[in-house]
Write a structure and sequence with these properties.
mainly alpha; Rossmann fold; Serine Threonine Protein Phosphatase 5, Tetratricopeptide repeat; DNA Cyclobutane Dipyrimidine Photolyase, subunit A, domain 3; 3 domains; five-stranded parallel β-sheet; 19 helices; 5 strands; 49% helix; binds flavin-adenine dinucleotide
Length: 449
C-alpha cells in the first residue's frame, strides 16, 4: 500500500496549502492529521483562548475536508510517536508538512524527518506560513535585521511572494484510520463557559477568514489610516485567522494586489507594512532563542522589576486599574480574546512601566487570553514595549494612558463600550507621574549595572 500523510500545524486551511496540495497531486490516499502535542519536551501549551479557537477551527476544517471527500484525523501525543504510528497504520510512504520556525518545533520536525527517511519514507516540508523564510532576508553581513524599516525595504526588494496554490478538488481518503473526537480533547471551557463573547466576535475557520478579508476590503481598507483609533473598525481583525493559518499571508498579499478601488489601493501599502511586522517578529523569533522568556537585549537581565502583589496584578488583568483606556482594553481582551493594537500598547506599557512589572508576566496573560496569541508576535511585541527587543521602543518612552485616550479615543466611544459611563469607578491604582519617574529611575539603575 502507499499514500501520504499531511501533518497540519499552523496551517488549518485547504486552499494555498502546499503540503496538502503536494500530497494530493502525488496520488493515492491522503491522511490529513492534526496532532495535539502537549507531550514533546519544550512545547508551550496553548492558552485557554487559543484552545477555544483551535476547537472551532478544527471543527470547521473537518467539515470542509468532508466536502472534499475525506475527514480530519485527530490524534493526541508526542508528534514523533503519532506520526510514526500513522505512517505504519495507513501504510503511507510520504509525509508532508508546512514548516514551523521555533527552535523546539524545528528540532522536533528535523528528528521526525530523519526518522522517516531512515525508515524509507519520504518527508517533504514547504513554506506556507511566512512570505519570506527567516534565513532569506539578511543584512549585507548575513545577519538578521534588527530594525524594521531596513528589513521591510529589503523584503520589498525580494522577488514578489509566490502566488497561492490552488485548492485540491478531491482528496482520496485513507482506509480506516482511527481518530479522536474533538470532545475527547476538552479544549472548550465548561465550568464556567466564558467563551460567549468570543463566539459572538469570531467565526474561526477558512470561510470565516475569507469573510473577514472581503469585509475588510469592502468596508474598512480605504479608512486604514484611522487604524490607530480603537473605536473605528479600520483594521482587518485577520490576526487570529493568520495565526492559525486559516488564510495564508500569500493569499492576503495577492488579494491586496488584485482588483481594488482607488482608495483601497492607496491604503494597501500601509496594511502590507503591518503584515510585514508579523514577518519581522518571526525573524526575531527564529534568530533569537526563546524570546518569550529571554530578553533579546541581555542588559535587561539586570532590570530591577518590582514584585507586584496578586491583587495589583488582578486589577490590571481584569480591568479595574482606574484608568479608562487600560480597563477598557483589558476587558475587551477578556471578553473577545482580542484587543486593538493601540490599546495593547497602552495596557502593556502600563504594566511594564507604570507598574514596573516584568514583561513576561504580561506576555503570559496575553498568551492565555488572546485568540491570536502566537509565539513570535506576542513575545516580540512585549519585548518591543519593554524596550528589550529588536527595534524596541526606547524604555524611556512611557505611554500616558490618559493622553493616549484623549488622542486616540477623544469621544470615548471605545472606552464606553467596555467601561459604562454610570459605572462606579475605582480610584486610580497609581500616580502616573511618580510611577513614570520610578520607571525611569529603574532604567537608569539597569544602565549603571
Ligand atoms: P491589522 O492592522 O489589520 O494588520 C494586519 C495584520 O498584520 C495583522 O492581522 C497581523 O497579522 C499583522 N500585524 C499588525 N500589527 C502587527 C504588529 N504590531 N506585530 C505583528 N504583526 C502585526 N499580534 C499577533 O498576531 N499575535 C499576538 O500574540 C500579538 N500580541 C501582541 C502583544 C502586544 C503587547 C502588542 C502591543 C501587540 C501584539 N500583537 C500581536 C500585534 C497586533 O496588536 C495585532 O497583530 C493586531 O492588533 C491585530 O489586529 P488586526 O488583524 O486588525 O491588524
Amino acid at each position: 500500500m502507499s499514500g501520504s500523510v499531511v501533518w497540519l500545524r499552523d496551517d488549518l486551511r485547504i486552499a494555498d496549502n502546499p503540503a496538502l496540495r503536494s500530497a494530493v497531486d502525488r496520488g493515492g490516499p491522503v491522511t490529513v492529521v492534526y496532532v495535539l502535542d502537549e507531550q514533546s519536551e519544550g512545547i508551550r501549551p496553548h492558552g485557554a483562548a487559543a484552545r477555544w479557537w483551535l476547537h472551532q477551527s478544527l471543527a470547521a476544517l473537518d467539515t470542509d475536508l468532508r466536502a472534499h471527500g475525506t475527514a480530519l484525523v485527530l490524534r493526541r501525543g508526542a508528534a514523533a510517536d503519532v506520526i510514526a504510528d500513522l505512517v505504519a497504520e495507513s501504510g503511507a510512504d510520504a509525509v508532508f508538512w508546512n514548516r514551523r520556525y521555533g527552535r523546539v518545533e524545528r528540532e522536533i520536525d528535523a528528528g521526525i524527518k530523519a526518522g522517516l527517511v531512515a525508515g524509507g519514507v519520504e518527508a517533504h516540508s514547504s513554506a506556507g506560513t511566512l512570505l519570506w523564510e527567516p534565513w532569506t532576508i539578511l543584512t549585507g553581513k548575513g545577519e538578521p535585521f534588527k530594525v524594521f524599516t531596513p528589513f521591510w525595504r529589503a523584503a520589498q526588494a525580494m522577488p514578489e511572494p509566490r502566488h497561492p496554490w490552488p485548492e485540491p478538488e478531491t482528496i482520496a481518503p485513507p482506509a480506516d484510520v482511527a481518530s479522536d473526537t474533538l470532545e475527547d480533547w476538552a479544549l472548550l471551557p465548561t465550568a464556567p463557559d466564558w467563551a460567549g463573547g468570543m463566539r459572538d466576535a469570531w467565526t474561526p475557520g477558512e470561510h470565516g477568514a475569507w469573510d473577514r478579508m472581503e469585509r475588510f476590503i469592502d468596508e474598512a481598507l480605504a479608512d486604514y489610516d484611522q487604524r490607530d483609533e480603537p473605536a473605528q473598525a479600520a483594521t482587518s481583525s485577520l490576526s487570529p485567522h493568520l495565526r492559525w493559518g486559516e488564510i495564508s499571508p500569500y493569499q492576503v498579499w495577492h488579494r491586496l494586489h488584485e482588483t481594488l478601488e482607488p482608495d483601497q489601493r492607496r491604503a494597501a501599502p500601509a496594511f502590507l507594512r503591518q503584515l510585514a511586522w508579523r514577518e519581522f517578529n518571526w525573524n526575531e523569533y527564529f534568530h533569537c532563542d526563546d524570546i518569550a522568556r529571554t530578553n533579546v537585549r541581555r542588559e535587561f537581565d539586570a532590570f530591577p522589576w518590582r514584585e507586584a502583589s496578586d491583587a495589583e496584578l488582578d486589577r490590571w488583568r481584569h480591568g479595574t486599574t482606574g484608568f479608562d483606556l487600560v480597563d477598557a482594553g483589558m476587558r475587551e481582551l477578556w471578553h473577545t480574546g482580542a484587543m486593538h493594537n493601540r490599546v495593547r500598547l497602552a495596557t502593556a506599557s502600563f504594566l511594564v512601566k507604570n507598574m514596573l512589572v516584568d514583561w513576561r508576566i504580561g506576555e503570559q496573560w496575553f498568551w492565555d487570553t488572546l485568540v491570536d496569541a502566537d509565539a513570535a508576535n506576542n513575545a516580540a511585541n512585549w519585548q518591543w514595549v519593554a524596550g528589550s527587543g529588536f527595534d524596541a521602543a526606547p524604555y524611556f518612552r512611557v505611554f500616558n494612558p490618559d493622553r493616549q485616550l484623549e488622542r486616540f479615543d477623544p469621544h470615548r466611544e471605545y472606552v464606553r463600550r467596555w467601561v459604562p459611563a454610570d459605572e462606579d469607578r475605582p480610584e486610580p491604582m497609581l500616580d502616573l507621574k511618580t510611577s513614570r519617574q520610578r520607571a525611569l529611575d529603574a532604567y537608569a539603575e539597569m544602565r549603571r549595572a
